[in-house]
């Protein structure tokens, strides 16, 4: 008998429609290919230098030293421990930490918390729980790119990107755009908009939502019986802007700190936080859903949480970190100081090279930069319009061995914009800027 050979189309055709869609998306998602060839001065000097991934490397040595000296592992990490929604010790330490740093109106109790292996899993679980396939969640532009897959890939929900035009997406004036987007979707499809999701502090704009805007969103959600999800993963990465000293800055205010009951049914309010950003620990894969008034959500997660079980090692490491007040207080303060200095350094580099960037940020660890405008200055024959223009610059940057996040993936309404991460040592930023400038000088 002849051997059975694999055809180019046969196995693909045996996939479900979901699986085929994932294949199509996977061929376009090159981020993981990029980070498999990451630059390192000793081990991979010819690799790609990343200022595109939202990783904070400024205090990695400090965190590793703490883990080495303080983490005490027990045999429970080899078991299912207290179940798939996080150990008792972990949820107790998270509640303790949130009560100290988020100023909650109602103290956060361990039974308000659902632990997941990162906030992506948390968002996917909420999408699956709140939205039927084809129903929608509102997300204002620009947005954190991975929200799209988190919300839609497996839950089969729909993300409605709210176009803002010239309206500041964090301002109260944006409220009308949310309502218009909801009405348009429902009239066009006959399906419901079930939720609004925020990233506060905002990724990629690096600013905090003012109270007036959040209040308006709560009122809108109450009037339409929609859930309000506040992703606060950058909550403690708020710092002093040493560059834009003449701009008033909005401080961060957690949704947990508000008495929401006068504006919205508290059962519709959910907050997310995790270790990835404020502690520079993306690899620990620890996230949390804090929902203080919706016990049925907690019951639903008992079914889903098996797929987002935090590893025993990460569980015990995180519990150790978050219950140590002296360490976390010092770490947060030092991190904020370093972010402030790194932002100032990158802003000075951008000014020196004449690259426009969005002023007025004081949170997160990225700048929204207009590399396209600089490219047109260097190459006046380019028109600089549309997705193809941003793609062309992105390809040139990758060819120049530097990764900067593509603005179109973040819902940018204008061509040529990118997200540039500055939470790295200063020589790293210098080398990244040198590579950017070399790449865009090429015709």
Notable traits:
443 residues; alpha/beta; Aspartate Aminotransferase, domain 1; Aspartate Aminotransferase, domain 2; 7-stranded mixed sheet; 4-stranded antiparallel sheet; 13 strands; 12% strand; globular; PyrdxlP-dep_Trfase_major; transaminase activity; pyridoxal phosphate binding; Aminotransferase class I/classII large domain-containing protein; pyridoxal phosphate
SSE pattern, N- to C-terminal: HHHEHHEHEHEHEHEEEHHHEEHHEEEH
Q: How many individual β-strands?
A: 13
Question: CATH superfamily assignment of the largest domain?
Answer: Type I PLP-dependent aspartate aminotransferase-like (Major domain)
**On the 0-100 scale, what is the average pLDDT?**
95
| Chain oligomer state | single chain
Please give the count of helices.
15
Q: Which CATH class of the largest domain is shown?
A: Alpha Beta
* Largest sheet entry: 7 strands, mixed
Strand order of the largest sheet: 2-8-7-6-5-3-4
CATH architecture of the largest domain: 3-Layer(aba) Sandwich
Note poorly predicted spans: none
Quick structural gist:
This protein has 15 helices and 13 strands.
Would you spell out the secondary-structure blueprint of this structure?
Layout lengths: L9 H4 L3 H12 L2 H5 L13 E2 L9 H11 L17 H14 L11 E4 L2 H12 L5 E5 L6 H6 L5 E5 L12 H15 L3 E7 L11 H14 L2 E5 L37 E6 L12 E4 L4 H10 L7 H11 L2 H29 L2 E2 L8 E5 H8 L7 H14 L2 E2 L1 E2 L10 E5 L4 H16 L2
Parallel strand pairs: 1-11, 3-4, 3-5, 5-6, 6-7
Antiparallel strand pairs: 2-8, 7-8, 9-10, 10-13, 12-13
Helix pairs in contact: 5-11, 12-15, 14-15
């Amino acid at each position: 008998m002849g051997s059975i050979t694999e055809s180019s189309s046969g196995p693909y055709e045996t996939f479900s429609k979901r699986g085929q869609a994932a294949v199509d998306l996977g061929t376009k998602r090159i981020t993981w290919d990029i980070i498999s060839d990451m630059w390192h001065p000793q081990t991979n000097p010819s690799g790609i230098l990343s200022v595109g991934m939202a990783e904070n490397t400024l205090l990695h040595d400090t965190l590793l030293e703490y883990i080495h000296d303080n983490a005490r592992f027990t045999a429970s990490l080899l078991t299912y421990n207290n179940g798939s929604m996080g150990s008792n010790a972990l949820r107790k330490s998270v509640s303790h930490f949130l009560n100290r740093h988020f100023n909650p109106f109602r103290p956060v109790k361990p039974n308000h918390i659902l632990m997941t292996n990162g906030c992506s899993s948390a968002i996917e679980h909420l999408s699956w729980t709140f939205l039927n396939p084809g129903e929608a969640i509102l997300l204002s532009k620009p947005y954190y790119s991975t929200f799209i897959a988190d919300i839609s890939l497996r839950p089969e929900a729909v993300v409605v990107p709210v176009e803002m035009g010239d309206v500041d997406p964090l301002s109260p004036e944006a409220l009308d755009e949310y309502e218009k987007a909801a009405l348009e979707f429902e009239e066009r499809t006959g399906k419901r908009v079930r939720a609004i999701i925020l990233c506060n502090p905002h990724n990629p704009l690096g600013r905090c939502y003012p109270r007036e805007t959040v209040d308006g969103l709560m009122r809108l959600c109450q009037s339409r019986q929609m859930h309000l999800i506040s992703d606060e993963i950058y909550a403690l990465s708020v710092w002093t802007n040493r560059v834009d000293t003449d701009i008033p800055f909005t401080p961060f205010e957690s949704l947990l700190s508000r008495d929401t009951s006068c504006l919205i049914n508290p059962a519709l309010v959910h907050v997310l936080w995790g270790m990835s950003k404020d502690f520079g620990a993306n690899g620990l894969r620890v996230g949390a859903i804090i929902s203080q008034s919706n016990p049925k959500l907690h019951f639903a997660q008992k079914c889903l949480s098996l797929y987002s079980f935090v590893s025993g090692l990460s569980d015990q490491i995180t519990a150790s970190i978050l219950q140590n007040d002296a360490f976390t207080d010092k770490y947060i303060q030092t991190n904020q100081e370093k972010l402030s200095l790194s932002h100032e350094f990158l802003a000075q580099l951008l000014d020196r090279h004449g690259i426009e960037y969005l002023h007025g940020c004081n949170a997160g660890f990225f700048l929204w930069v207009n590399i396209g405008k600089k490219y047109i200055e260097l190459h006046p024959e380019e028109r600089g319009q549309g997705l193809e223009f941003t793609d062309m610059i992105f390809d040139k940057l990758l060819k120049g061995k530097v990764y900067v996040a593509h603005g179109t993936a973040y819902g940018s309404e204008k061509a040529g914009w990118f997200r540039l991460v500055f939470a790295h040592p200063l020589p790293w930023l210098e080398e990244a800027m040198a590579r950017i400038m070399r790449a865009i000088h090429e015709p």
